[in-house]
Description:
- It holds the Pfam family YqiJ_N.
- The protein is an alpha+beta fold.
- It has helices spanning 2-5, 11-29, 47-53, 61-87, 93-118, and strands spanning 136-139, 143-144, 150-155, 161-168, 175-176, 180-187, 190-195.
Amino acid sequence: MLAVFLTPAYLPFAIAFVVMIGIGLIEAIGLGFGHLDVGADGIEGHDGVLDWLGLSGELPILIWLISLLGCFTLVGVALQQGASALTGAPLGWPLAAVGALIAGGALNTVVANGLARIMPGFETSVISTDDLLRRRGTILEGAARRGVPARAKVVDEHGQAHIVMVEPHDDRTVIKAGERALLVRREGKLFFVLPEDDRLLQSI
């Protein structure tokens, strides 16, 4: 069977199987789960597509990818075995790969949704953009003014640093490089902040 698996007709499925094993080994070593934040900017509004792909739940993206590669490999091998049994020869690898991708993608939707239901307790250090609100950041360069945002570094609850663009919440406030400020609201990718010496923050 191994010799057959290495023939050109089975090549896409052999490659997918090797990639699947490689990703699985990386995860087993403990390098962490890849996770897709489906609530992030740019993905909202595509819930129908995400549902069809099996990506609308809390399933880590690398687990979803392993599942997809597994389904692609299984369907592809089954397709080639069936073709060989019926016609005496497997399909050409491009045709088999396209068929396996379509059928395997459909199968993966079921598998991914099932995996998401049995992994409700999965925890990830990936956070949504709104989780940075009410955290303090440090202006990195220049000065933040209304209409002139500046880059700031914000450290989340997991100790990971994020670079965001900020403007002062108040029109006449200027926050210089090296100063700290509290992120109080967000509009798109832009955060509005209060400087740390603001009287409203003295009791916080």
